[in-house]
Amino acid sequence: MDIHRTNNFDFLRFYGAASIIISHCFALSLGYTAISIYNPTLLFGQIGLAILIVISGFLIPASWERDPRPKAFFTKRLLRIGPGLIFAILFVLFIIGPIATTLPLAEYFAAMLSPSTWASVPFYTNGAALGLFTTNPVPFVNAPLWAIPLEFSLYILLAGLGLVGLLKFRHTMIPLFLFFFILWALWFENPTLSKVHYILYFLAGAWYFRNRDRIDINGRTALVLFVVLAGTYLLFPTNPVIFPVAFLVIPYLVLFVAQADTPRLNHFGKYGDFSYGMFIFTYPIQQTMILFWPGEVCIPLLIVFSLAAGVGMGAVSWHLVEKRTLGLKRRVTGKS
To answer: What's this model's pTM, rounded to 2 decimal places?
Structure first.
């Protein structure tokens, strides 16, 4: 496997974030309870998140391999995730909140400072304490934030494996993969606990990184796997079998696209990586659009407006916050 310096990870991250935004347009307009877990619009967003996590699983072990010092490793991770996340929370509290709340502004800010409100943090759970989106089909304020603690827990797992020397073995991720797969199967009916399946994508990405010198990622295999995945869904559109197939197929397809020699995609991120900002800012903007939408929501228009807002806030977050902290990350750790 040849994941060279001019790769397509920036394009894939953008595609993954955009897929999630598009999927949320349907879920937030109709309500999660109105959409089956096998609905293609919901699966489209799940694939987008899977893409982001596979990439993380592949690249984070590379960071540990370059500098296996726990302090440096976690400092880099916090500087990559933390500043943008704080910016997104402040954006909700001081921009979205005063616009969208049903409370008088004085009550809103009083509620924002109340310990009981902060006890209801994180904000992806429910916005009722601040009077946010209580009449929307979905009451969540920023649901994608649930993935941040999961992601960071995987950093802890990876560092722990590195510290005890297990990352040097090629197949350490396989028993972990099987363990979390069993948990997913046991928790399949629980919409919260079943999200453990995203860990499988991280572990698959990490396994591919550790075995990158022995694995041939090629177009013929990628095509066969894509046909298998698409065929499984077409033949069994409401059968859980599509998920295990996806766990095995999507990581390969992601890394195939990542290493493809496509000059235009290789330079996709020349203006910056907007994907993280798109991921953490767009959901509350979409909720605000739906709140004030006149009449029935037009989903195609919502998609256009959501993508425009997401890319715009992604650019703001990148240039105003994330890009600056990347420079700080290099100074603090002494390495790239």
So the answer is: 0.94
